[in-house]
Amino acid sequence: MLFKLLKAQLVLLATLACSSRADQDIYVDDALSSGWENWSWSSDINFAATDAPATTGTSISVNSSAWAALSLKDESIFGTAGFAGLKFDILGAKPDVSFYIQSTTDNSQSPSIALSTVADYINTTAWTTILLDFSALPPTGAPLGNGTWDRINFQGGANGAVYHLDNIELVSSIVIAPEILSAEPIASNTIAVTTQGDVDVSTLSVTLNSKAVKVTNQTSYNPVDAPSKTIWYLTLAQALAPGSLVLSSNNVSFNYTLPAVQYGSITTGNSKPISPLIYGVNFPTSASYIQNLGVTISRWGGNAVTAFNPFLSVTNAGNDWYFENRVGDDGPVDDWSAWVQGANSQAMMTVPALDWVSKDSTSYSYPKTEYPDQGAFDPYKADAGNGLFPNGSYITPSPNQANVYTPWNTSLAKTWLTSMAHPPQIVTIDNEIEIASNTHQDMHPIPIGYDEELARVLNYSIIAKASLPSVQVAAPSTCAWWYYWTSSVGFTDNAAHNNIDFLPWFLAQMKAAEKTAGQRLLDFLDIHYYYAPDTSANDAAAKALRLRMTRSLWDPSYVDESWIGTSAPQNHQPNANAVWLIPRMQQLIAQNYPGTKLSISEWSSTADTDITGGLLTADVLGIFGREGVDAATYWATPDEKGPVGLAYWLYRGYGTFFPANSVQVNLANRSEDVLGVYAGANSGGKDITVVIINKDVNPVGLYLANVPTGKYFLRHFGGDAGVAKWQTTITLTTNQYIVVPAYTSVFLQQQ
Ligand SMILES: *[C@@H]1O[C@H](CO)[C@@H](O)[C@H](O)[C@H]1NC(C)=O
Ligand SMILES: *[C@@H]1O[C@H](CO)[C@@H](O)[C@H](O)[C@H]1NC(C)=O
Ligand SMILES: *[C@@H]1O[C@H](CO)[C@@H](O)[C@H](O)[C@H]1NC(C)=O
Ligand SMILES: *[C@@H]1O[C@H](CO)[C@@H](O)[C@H](O)[C@H]1NC(C)=O
Ligand SMILES: *[C@@H]1O[C@H](CO)[C@@H](O)[C@H](O)[C@H]1NC(C)=O
Ligand SMILES: *[C@@H]1O[C@H](CO)[C@@H](O)[C@H](O)[C@H]1NC(C)=O
Ligand SMILES: *[C@@H]1O[C@H](CO)[C@@H](O)[C@H](O)[C@H]1NC(C)=O
Ligand SMILES: *[C@@H]1O[C@H](CO)[C@@H](O)[C@H](O)[C@H]1NC(C)=O
Ligand SMILES: *[C@@H]1O[C@H](CO)[C@@H](O)[C@H](O)[C@H]1NC(C)=O
Ligand SMILES: *[C@@H]1O[C@H](CO)[C@@H](O)[C@H](O)[C@H]1NC(C)=O
Ligand SMILES: *[C@@H]1O[C@H](CO)[C@@H](O)[C@H](O)[C@H]1NC(C)=O
Asked: Which UniProt keywords apply (predicted)?
């Protein structure tokens, strides 16, 4: 857990516990404390800066270039014995900085903690105190653990970071002030309360429309990985109702206006199957990750797989990282496929389809020695350049591919695929190769057009099916909206193909190829989908936009809030200012190659560490089920305990599953900008389940006719402060007023 406080409002006391060490100053005034060394890199640092606007003394000023860091090393090992946490003051214009604790003995390190995930108001007018509790580090709440810790790093992001630090110290103990963090109404007669420290929740009184309401039952849990220490469920003697709800104890109160009911119903008779493969991710971290989140399909994908050499397990990062070869991050493919499938997840594997793959783990395409005039060089490998002139245009002439690559072709692909002891269920033919002349300009500098892309998909699909007779093929894994309709060659390429937009043309060609080949060569039309609206500001307006832009997945009346919605269409599609993604793709399939399934092998929340990213993900998983997507894998690996991981947990965590069939939901008031409601049932109408995502900043109250009353398993995450997450069993006493708190996603499954 992390506490954010103003110095002046320091409510946490760092006190001395008898058995432990004293607090240890690392930096207080003018200089590092004795025993501490400056191990920083690529940064301008002044340890006696006097220019911080909000201080009278000195502080550390830091100006780090891309990925560079202020790094402080203890000459001895501070470890964790005796230290409860790290405290420091920071000042800056929301600097893009992350911190982590490291061991120079074995090079292990703590998770990297982005400042933005722990404090969102860092500014240049007032110092903010950050206190990291070693027993529960963000973002997961996992303890730092014992280690030979001796180094603390503050690392800038891709554009570097400029900020000031002061009063850096290791604190010997952290006294957690008892506090009720949130208390919120949920379901028909339950109050969910999150607390830290030693709190007596029986002091919490409940008043509904000025009348006291009795609490008839109280149960509590201490989930290890919850953002709060303890969560309580209080059962009320009467159902919640519209009006004023006050939850108050001696020094804190939570007041809500419970809104008028919104009418809706479910129609259990109207249901259709949900593909189990919509709950996928790219590169799960472990078998337990797959099992804990219920990940049904795991993809081996991304830009680096284009150059992946399966015989040597080495790859090239392309323009993601200075065109450098490296050892693949995920080991040999067959081992990966084995453990993924062993954990009950299907494997979706990318087969490279250009003419080269990485030849070793060390070469790179643009050495400074050969191309001195480049825009940027790897801060960690000064000789490796970014392949661009300082003015941003591509280095010419293109390097000789054989410097870093070895030839690749369909016979080598066959040798590899037939050798697999644990073949994947699905293969994708390469990854976003329509933009290879950019992402892999060193390997394939010529823009790829319609014909080349089709030829590569056909050649590799034929070989994949010949090598692995039961494998299914997904292609062309197109990166984004623009390239759904045209190629890197440009509109002359459309013109050369009767002005037929790319994806419909591709589908029709694959249909024709089935006739020739005597078998289907495309099982899934595979696309990547990244939301076009810009939510990077992450302020209230951006959060609201993030939460409503899920409508682009299904709603023909949702004009995209991006260039797609405002520009003249660059394609020949109907209703082209709406993305209307899933029905649009299903319609293109029906028109051009019926029977093809739809997969979305990359999509993202736009904010993996923000609660709204988690709510968006819960909304999307509901939409994928309802709209009949056949497979989907999140890009990239959601943090298991972060907001996006929580959305997977909500639907699939620890063996509790959203049902196999989607049930029709009818809402009298269409308010999908702020509300998502998804229902499901297993065969025979069993295990009726409702997931409700309240995307609004106020509670919502729903009448859901046909949702039976009785015992339910309740699971939820979110809340006003994004602190509540857990699960319990409740009795739904009525379906006429089901409350979901602000910014919260609930899962209710009939028991
Ligand atoms: C600390 O290290 C950085 C990076 O090497 C260097 O630029 C800076 O001058 C050093 N500062 C001091 C006071 O040694
Ligand atoms: C940080 O360093 C960069 C590169 O040296 C420089 O351009 C920039 O002005 C510096 N920023 C500040 C606030 O000093
Ligand atoms: C600046 O930071 C202080 C302390 O962290 C905070 O109280 C204040 O609200 C912030 N101001 C702005 C304008 O964000
Ligand atoms: C860490 O070390 C302390 C004392 O050396 C020990 O009591 C504790 O159990 C260790 N914790 C872990 C997680 O190994
Ligand atoms: C609120 O009251 C409780 C119980 O009296 C007390 O333990 C706690 O410290 C108080 N919290 C604050 C923030 O004052
Ligand atoms: C909540 O309502 C109570 C009673 O009306 C009032 O005393 C209290 O100040 C209110 N608290 C907040 C946080 O608005
Ligand atoms: C419809 O939903 C919107 C958004 O939640 C809400 O503001 C409005 O009051 C609702 N109208 C009715 C009639 O329930
Ligand atoms: C960019 O710089 C290179 C090398 O100096 C030059 O050949 C090229 O014409 C420049 N491109 C543009 C667009 O100015
Ligand atoms: C693929 O490359 C291998 C090794 O260079 C070569 O033996 C083989 O003939 C090539 N296959 C095709 C289809 O070009
Ligand atoms: C596809 O395979 C055919 C037949 O082997 C070959 O002539 C053609 O060059 C291949 N196309 C691509 C783009 O590799
Ligand atoms: C109180 O709630 C818990 C958790 O739901 C449940 O196990 C227990 O039976 C309830 N007790 C009573 C008296 O209802």
From this structure: Hydrolase
**Whether residue 707 is found in the same domain as residue 643:** no
Over residues 576-594, the pLDDT tens digits come to 999 999 999 999 999 999 9
Residue whose token pair is 């900008």: 673
**Which pair of tokens denotes residue 600?**
């979305």
Residues touching ligand 2 (Cβ under 6 Å) are: 44, 63, 162
CATH code of the domain containing 212: 2.60.40.1180
Nearest bound ligand to the CA of residue 63:
2
Q: Among the residues of 486-573, which ranges form H helices?
A: 491-495, 502-517, 540-548, 563-566
Do the strands 297-300 and 346-351 form a parallel or antiparallel pair, or are they unpaired? parallel
Same domain, 643 and 712: no
Mind giving me the DSSP string for 300-366? Answer: E-SGGGGG-BTTTTEEE-GGGTTTBEEE-TT--HHHHHHHHHHTT-EEEEEEP-SSEEE--SS-BS-
What is the arithmetic mean of pLDDT over 85-98?
95
Mean pLDDT of the chain: 93
Mean pLDDT of 625-637: 97
| End position of a domain, from candidates 401, 417, 449 | 401
Q: E strands of 241-300, at which residues?
A: 243-248, 253-258, 262-273, 280-282, 297-300
Question: For residues 163 and 91, is the Cβ–Cβ distance under 8 A?
Answer: yes
Q: What's the 44 CA to ligand 1 centre distance in angstroms?
A: 7
19 ligand 4 Cβ < 6 A: no
CA distance readout (Å), 433 to 302, 457, 751: 11, 10, 48
595, 675: one domain: no
- Any idea which ligand is nearest the CA of 195? 5
Number of folded domains in the chain?
A: 4
Is there a contact between 603 and 528 (Cβ–Cβ < 8 Å)?
yes
Q: What is the pLDDT of residues 210-251, one digit of tens each?
A: 999 999 999 999 886 665 679 999 999 999 999 999 999 988
Say which residues have a Cβ less than 8 Å from residue 560's Cβ, sequence separation at least 6. Answer: 532, 533, 549, 552, 577, 578, 579
Residues 428, 498 within the same domain: yes
Whether the ω angle into residue 367 lies within 30 degrees of 0, i.e. cis, is no
Atom of ligand 4 nearest to the CA of 145: 13
Residues contacting 699, CB < 8 A, separation 6+: 184, 185, 256, 257, 258, 259, 739, 740, 741, 742
Q: What is this structure's pTM? A: 0.84
115/34 same-domain check = yes
* Nearest CA among 317, 396, 320 for reference residue 364: 317
- The protein residue with its alpha carbon nearest to ligand 4, atom 3, reads 81
74 lines ligand 10 (CB under 6 A): no
Answer yes or no: do 599 and 721 share one domain. no
Here the tokens at position 361 are 């783990």
Q: How far is the CA of 152 from the centre of ligand 2 (A)?
A: 23
Domain boundary residue, one of 171, 187, 202: 171
Task: Return the CATH number at 477.
Answer: 3.20.20.80
Q: Which amino acid residue places its CA nearest to atom 2 of ligand 7?
A: 671
Same domain assignment for residues 410 and 396: no
**Contact in structure between 99 and 145 (CB atoms under 8 Å):** no
Q: Based on the fold, state whether residues 545 and 673 are members of the same structural domain.
A: no
> Does 40 sit in the ligand 1 pocket, CB within 6 Å?
yes
Please report the beta strands in 425-562, taking only residues with DSSP state E, as ranges in sequence order. 426-429, 472-478, 524-529
The answer to whether 487 and 502 have CB atoms below 8 angstroms apart is yes
The Å distance, Cα 389 to ligand 8 centre, comes to 7
Report how far ligand 5's centroid is from the alpha carbon of 117 (Å).
27
- Band the pLDDT of 484: cuts 50, 70, 90: very high
- The residue to mutate among 42, 45, 62, having the most atoms of ligand 1 within 8 angstroms of its beta carbon, is 45
What helix, strand, coil percent values describe the chain, rounded to 5? 20, 35, 40
Q: Domain limits at 66?
A: 3-171
